[in-house]
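HOLO CASE FILE
Compound: PMT
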Amino acid sequence: MQEQIKTMKPYTGKNVVLGITGGIAAYKSIELIRRLNDSGINVRVIMTKAATEFVTPMTFEAISGNAVHTEMFGPRIKSAIEHIELARWADLLLIAPATANIIAKVNHGIADDLLSTVSLALTDIDLAIAPAMNLGMWQNPATQKNISDLNSRGINIWGPASGFQACGEIGSGRMIEAAEIVDYVKNYFVNNQQLPLSGKKIVITAGPTREPVDPVRFITNRSSGKMGYALAQALADNGAEVKLISGPVSLSKPAVGDIERITVETAMQMKEAVFDNIDGCDIFVGTAAVADYRIADIADKKLKKSQDDMRIDLIKNPDILGEVAALKKPPFTVGFAAETDNLEKYAKGKLEAKKLNMIAANIVGVSDKGFDSDKNELHVFWKDNSKILQLEEKRVIADKLVHIIMERYDAENKIKNT
Ligand code: PMT
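Model generated. Tokens follow.
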């Protein structure tokens, strides 16, 4: 084991999906696969229809030791989401050779075959392109504009080289050699040491919801969003792609990392935003203080104070967290429990009743933690254990909670995969 750790390189055991498009340089990909395999890198191949005109899929099947993927649909396809499975498997999608056509499709988000669809399912930093085309096509302003756009998006462009071309011309456009591409791949993995949550999609709710009574009044709670926003930042700091679904708060969007904020007002809007983003989500965290009830009949005009007393009928809001955990294929689901008493009993009750993977419980209704405070203290429970995170700044508590989430997520995924 010690020996194995010593000799492990950052690229050993990494997964590369190699996209091969229709160009004469497709034959160079045979050597490329062999060299990648020799370096301990796993390779699965996607070929476009045009690529199969240059080299047969069987050749790549034999070299890579894996079935070659050529189509989105058809009798050979075992799963309707094969493109997503390939994207999830890949640490890097390398398109080599990449024609002017695939370069244009990647730049414009066109997904009309398996390769272009997989490329759209990945983040830009997980893409690398080794162009191969005739000099005129390479110099064409359309291609140059596409390359410059892809470059500015952070997509890796490796090559092309200059020299003799299959068409007889001399100039830029040749695919770089296999050995050079492998060096680029190794460097990529060395330089982009993956963060623990790289490639993970996380949806998190934060803040309160507001349930309107009439055009000028609403029912809400004391949540400031500080806990949820600190968690969103801590998750992004660990490489996750975060969708922060936020109720009305006065905080700015967390500045660093891959965080998209979606603002909502009511519980119903929060539920809609969550379910619009839940597909492909790996981890869901429910930090929001969602109103349990909403007003049955929202008045369309300001209510007048004509009587001495008045009653407002409330109806139950959907339990967003519970509905996420009840999905057929739920993400790893983390809830919060805000309690004024009986913290452990109520939190464990919610963990079980809602079938959560974890719950972070906090005492609320006091001034130094919980709602609106800059600090918090959490008692985190999961199936067979718990951990107390002592009173600290919410951003520090958030880092510690994310650490537990990662440990539990890894542990449960390992169990699932054995
Ligand atoms: O925003 P801050 O000022 O920083 O305060 C942080 C916090 C106290 C709001 C936070 O730490 C917290 O405890 N959030 C959960 C608040 C809450 O609504 O707890 P609950 O015990 O009522 O709900 C249990 C869980 O179900 C929560 O994950 C909640 O998001 C979820 N829920 C509740 C009701 C509902 N209709 N839908 C839900 O998804």
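CASE NOTES: The longest strand covers residues 385-393. Confidence is low (pLDDT under 50) at residues 1-7.
CLOSED: yes
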